[in-house]
Each structure stands twice: as structure tokens, then as C-alpha cells.
Amino acid sequence: MIEAPEALYISKQLNQTIKGKTITFVCAGYTPHKFTWFYGDPANYPAMLIGKTVGEAHAYGGVIEIDIEDVRLLISDGTNIRYYAPRRKASGKASVAGRI
Asked: pLDDT, tens digit, for every residue of 54-99?
């Protein structure tokens, strides 16, 4: 579970790292399981996110909300956030999880 202080710290890190960057790749539901919830069909997420610019990240209790133009991305318990610098190859599952 993301605790409120962690959410504040992570949102600050996101604002320093990815704010203003453009999303170039999205893969939702790569590792399906019973405790993942999506708004709508996850197959539509690439169309909703690719090419959009990441805005401000905010913490609301144990949830992190990221403004991505006209979309709000909510991150909560069980999410592992990773940022890989451009041209750096990610290994394993992270290699297809998403690129900004």
C-alpha cells in the first residue's frame, strides 16, 4: 500500500523527472491479474496516451494522480513505477511496460 507520505514523495519525484515529457509507448495489462482495474478497455490506452505531454503529478492520500493533457492517470497500491532514460534498454517485463 502506498502511504500518504510516500505518495507525496513519489509525486515530487515524478514532477522532477517526467513532467513535460511526451509519451511514446504504452502497454496496459501486460501481466494480467485479478486485482487490476482499468477505466474502459485497456487496449484503448495507447490511443489515449501516446503523443501526449505529461503534466503535474499530485498526491491524494495513498493515490498518485498524473495529469496527461485531457487524461488523468491514477497510480495506487501494487504499482511499480520505473523511468528509463531515452535510449536505455530496460530489461525483463519493464522493457514493454511503457516509455515516456
From this structure: 999 999 999 999 999 999 999 988 777 777 777 666 555 544 445 5
Distance CA 31, CA 19 (A): 26
How does pLDDT run across 1-59, given as a tens digit for each residue? Answer: 789 999 999 999 999 999 999 998 888 877 777 777 788 888 999 999 999 999 999 99
What is the value of pTM for the model shown?
0.79
How far, CA to CA in Å, does 26 sit from each of 4, 49, 50, 51, 61?
Answer: 27, 7, 7, 10, 26
| Inter-CA distances, 85 with 52, 88, 91, Å | 18, 6, 13
The three-state secondary structure class of 59 is strand
Supply 33's cell numbers. Answer: 491479474
CB 1 within 8 A of CB 80: no
